[in-house]
Every structure is written in structure tokens, then in C-alpha cells.
Amino acid sequence: MTVSTDTADREIKARHRALWASGDYPSVADVIAPLGSRLVDAAGIRAGEAVLDVAAGAGNVAIPAARTGANVIATDLTPELLDVGRHLAAPEHLDITWQTADVEALPMPNAAFDVVTSCVGVMFAPFHQRGADEIARVCRSGGRIGLINWTPTGFIGELFTVMKPYAPAPPPGASAPVLWGDPDHVRTLFGTTITDAEFATEKLVVDRFETGAEFRDFFKDTYGPTIAAFRNIAANRGRVAELDAAMAGLADRYLAGGVMEWEYSLMTAHVR
């Protein structure tokens, strides 16, 4: 089990927690809700299986996984998001344990789970190799890993490219989140720990926004990375105007009749 006590690492994690606690990420999760059930189906989650969902947010995967009858643990670095998930799941009395934990240092024993999942979650942990190593470590031999990540070339990947010049600098040694949407990168991360890896590029249809400006304003209010970018340049009106225009313009380019397609990579594999 990997446990970091490094002061700098603790500071990085504290900033990361604050980032995702800002705004209203559960509203964003509502927009992308279909991805949760898609991943549960792709991973073949069944009743009685032990499932770990890492960087689970408000339970986008954990809740539909528990509806199958699986025994689910949902972990996230940000307890505020888990609180929302706990509230959402309560009326159904689902078998979900909500636990604050860092995907780069999971407090679980080796080979403890039949299935480990993450839906646009682990990709935002700064040190990719740590996250991949932990996911593989806690999944039993013959167990399954299922991941959904935004691709570098899709809408969200382009959004991060647009925001990058305005955003706070990432921690030293951190990798770009959307690299998790590149199959070659993911194969390299997991190396020989997995077998039968399959990748599919799919698109989420989003019909929430009529204009690019509406999308931009929604993300400015709700999405932690966007909030952080605008806070970083708040003192410079010109820069704020630039980012406003760039985000709205990007979204307008993807909008057609009030519909957008957000590309993601779906990966399933077995652990050796």
C-alpha cells in the first residue's frame, strides 16, 4: 500500500480537494449522468461483486453499480461530493460505503475487489502512474477494470487546451488529465498488470445548452477547473474577456441545434 506523508504532497491534495469542492460539481455530474450506467454495463458489474469506484464524486457510477446488487465502496478525495452521493442514494437504501480516500494512495488491501471503476475521475489525479498502480493493486487477479475518460481531441479535451493558458500552474511532475483518454498512454500506465484491454471511443450527447455562452456561464458557476482558471485571472479584465470569448466560441463550434457531442474513451481490461 502506498502512503505519502510528504508535506508538499499533502498541500497538493488539499488544493485538489478545494478545487472540486468549489462551485457545484454535482450539477455537472447530472449533465454527464448517462456515463455512469454506460460504465457499469461495460464493466459487466453483477450482484454480489465487490466494486470499488475511485474518484467517485457524487456517485455517478457507484449508484447504478449498487442497483445491480453489487457491494460498492465509493471513494473520493473531496468529502463534500461524497455527502451529495450519500444523500442521493439514501432513498433507495443501496449497499454503498462512502469513504474519503486518495486514488493515489488507497487505504485498501491488495486484491480486495472484483471490479474497480472510475468515470472521468482518476484522470484528474495529478500523478498518473500512482493512480494506475493503485487501481491495479486493489483489483484481484482475474478481476476487471473499467474506465471512462475524456479524450484529448474531444470537446472537453479542447476545453482544457483553451483554459490552460489562464489556469494556475499544475504541480511539478503532474501529467495532463486528458492523457487518460489516449489508449497508448493508458496501456503504458498499466503495463503488464492488465490483459484483454479494450478501448472504444464514444460520444455523450448533451442537449442542455442552447448557446456557447450558456455553456460557458454554467461551467463558470459549477466546474472547479473553470472556476480556478477565472479566479487566476480575475484581476485582469482583458484576460477574463479573452477566456469568456474562447470558451463560448469553442462551445458554439460543437453545438448543432442545441445538441453537443462530448467524446470519451471507454476502457475495460482484466487484471493478471
UniProtKB/TrEMBL annotation:
Superkingdom, natural source: Bacteria
Gene3D superfamilies named in the record: Vaccinia Virus protein VP39 (3.40.50.150)
Keyword RNA-binding among UniProt keywords: no
BP term (GO), one: methylation
Molecular-function GO terms, alphabetical: S-adenosylmethionine-dependent methyltransferase activity
InterPro entries documented for this protein: Methyltransf_11, SAM-dependent_MTases_sf
Keyword field: Methyltransferase, Transferase
Methyltransferase type domain mapped to chain residues: 52-145
PANTHER family cross-referenced by the UniProt entry: 2-METHOXY-6-POLYPRENYL-1,4-BENZOQUINOL METHYLASE, MITOCHONDRIAL, METHYLTRANSFERASE
This protein's name: Putative methyltransferase
Lineage of the species this protein comes from: Bacteria, Bacillati, Actinomycetota, Actinomycetes, Mycobacteriales
